[in-house]
TrEMBL record:
Species per Swiss-Prot/TrEMBL record: Photinus pyralis (Common eastern firefly)
Gene Ontology MF, one: long-chain fatty acid-CoA ligase activity
Residue spans crossing the bilayer: none
PANTHER family: AMP-DEPENDENT SYNTHETASE_LIGASE DOMAIN-CONTAINING PROTEIN, LONG-CHAIN-FATTY-ACID--COA LIGASE
Keywords attached to this entry: Ligase
Gene Ontology annotations for the cellular component aspect, listed alphabetically: endoplasmic reticulum; membrane
Key word 4Fe-4S present: no
Name listed for the protein in its UniProt record: AMP-dependent synthetase/ligase domain-containing protein
Keyword Ligase part of the UniProt annotation: yes
Record-linked Gene3D superfamilies: N-terminal domain of ligase-like (3.40.50.12780)
Length: 279
């Protein structure tokens, strides 16, 4: 078993043992590349439309979303999204900004199951896709929800998604991902918060595991150290000549709310492979 990623900080003695690391180190490695070569992040829409995401733009979104969630006083952030760049950004935002626990909700579950998962994990914030989240029903059954960020697809951005259903009052603060980006100056920093210092250690990640169909999901909490060890183990388990490199393209076909899928995807990022998302 590998304890971690053996992250060597600049200026560290050559033969010293590196840090175990966390998701912030995974992303920094993906951005910096390995000996100057780095992979690409892609969204595949249909059979022909492929969108490439610039690393600086992703850094900007991590900063905007993470800062907003933290400033709202959020503690537990549910990510209820299909496989997408926004899913990855939300997870990284919870890692780069302090006191945030990411809760990965399996996507496209039934309404009653969704409410049960939100209640059991005691989330106060949800990042979700429009058309996939029954806001009225959730708020009526789970009044502890305080923040909602809609991820709106391009074809629906002309609509006003900031309104709350009648009778809900101001219990839930609703905004959209795109509005947060548009309301922030384009020159807003792409420099991510430092990994060490006042930000402290990043928060845990909560997932749900279902052994058999129809069984109640088990809620499992992973520390960042657990995840770093898992990523390192997945990389080390593959013979050196067969390991992922910047020449490879990785497509997570299973949901990123599945911890094994997420770990392999993060291992691909850490290995500077290209990663494609297709929900």
């Amino acid at each position: 078993l590998n304890a971690g990623l053996n992250v060597k900080d600049p200026g560290a003695p050559k033969f010293s043992r590196g840090r175990d690391g966390d998701l912030r180190d995974v992303w920094r490695k993906a951005v910096s590349g390995d000996t100057g070569a780095r992979g690409r992040l892609l969204t595949v829409l249909g059979s022909e439309n492929v969108v490439e995401h610039k690393m600086d733009d992703i850094n900007r979104q991590i900063n905007i979303i993470g800062r907003y969630i933290a400033e709202q006083g959020s503690i537990k952030v549910a990510i209820y999204l299909p496989n997408s760049i926004e899913h990855l950004i939300s997870l990284l935002a919870c890692s780069f900004y302090p006191n945030l626990t990411a809760v990965l909700i399996p996507f496209d579950v039934s309404e009653s199951e969704l409410i049960s998962l939100l209640r059991r994990s005691a989330v106060d914030t949800v990042v979700t896709a429009t058309g996939s989240f029954p806001l009225d029903a959730v708020v009526n059954a789970y009044p502890s929800l305080r923040q909602l960020i809609w991820v709106v697809d391009e074809g629906s951005r002309h609509m006003d998604w900031n309104d709350v259903p009648e009778g809900m009052g101001s219990a839930v603060n609703v905004t959209t991902w795109q509005d947060l980006l548009n309301d922030t100056p384009a020159a807003a920093g792409t420099e991510l918060p430092a990994s060490e210092g006042s930000t402290g250690a990043p928060g845990d990640i909560v997932t749900f595991w279902q052994g058999k169909q129809g069984e109640l999901e088990e809620m499992v909490r992973f520390t960042q150290a657990n995840l770093a060890s898992g990523i390192s183990g997945q990389i080390a388990a593959i013979p050196t000549r067969e390991r992922l490199t910047q020449a490879d393209l990785f497509l997570p076909a299973e949901s990123l709310s599945n911890m094994h899928t997420l770990t392999l995807t993060l291992a691909a990022l850490y290995s500077n492979s290209s990663v494609a998302f297709n929900s």
